[in-house]
Design a protein that fits this description.
By secondary structure, this protein is an alpha/beta fold. It has two domains: 64 residues; 198 residues, Vaccinia Virus protein VP39 (Rossmann fold). It is built from ten helices and nine strands. The strands form two sheets. It has a seven-stranded mixed beta sheet, with helices on both faces. α1 crosses α2, α1 runs parallel beside α4 and α2 packs antiparallel against α4.
Length: 279
Amino acid sequence: MQPLTVQQALEQARAALASAGIVSAPAEARALVQHVLQSTPAGLLLRGPETLTTEQQQQFDRLLEARTARWPLQYLLGTEWGGLTLRCDARALVPRPETEWLLHLCTQRPAPARILDIGTGSGALALALQARWPSAQVTATDLSAEALSLAQENAVLSGISGVEWRLGDLLAGAVGPFDLVVSNPPYLPEADQAAAEPEVQHDPALALYSGPDGLTLARRLLASTLTHLARPGGTLWLELDPRNVLKLAAEARASGWQVAVHPDLTGRLRFLELQPATL
């Protein structure tokens, strides 16, 4: 096998990824080669004529084969999210950029003493909130034991201790009252599953789809959270699909919540900030 130079590896990766239908092929090619070389972006520019070692070329071939098979890039390289380095795999939903904005919105409010992350998945939100407020008591729940195992691995990887991990449905085993409850629940309509991108099909369906309109679990969450919030000031934050966020906002107002709807970075309404209307 003829050794590849860094420039040749970049060109090969760009062509292969584009052929596989990956829109961001140039950026992902750079990410793959940079990972193999353990290089910075600036360093990559200077190493074009350099030849990959045998070990580097074998790693490059494995990564490129997996990515062209549409394994999520985050599974292969990990991800930087909310200031943390996180491991990603099929045990939990890959943390999305939209949820980083939910983290930002939550941290613009006064520091809470007790926090609950419902459906923690990879642990991203719980760990980032614990990092932001080290003195807070953070509890994170998930119905999936596999997801919780990944969250705990990410706690070790991130060097963050203190989060209490609980296996259970919604608030099961979580003892309130909480000043802040946050959740990125499954919120897609079940019909979306048939047209999901190949990468999304690697995510656990349990973390994505929730009934005909995507709100089955969110409705249960609203009903069960009301009595677990601290009074006064307890707040529930939800991330939802822009297609159904206003529908749940109307239902929440009708069932005794004060509701504010917030957009994501693209201007689409996506987040609900809720407090009991009697506060």
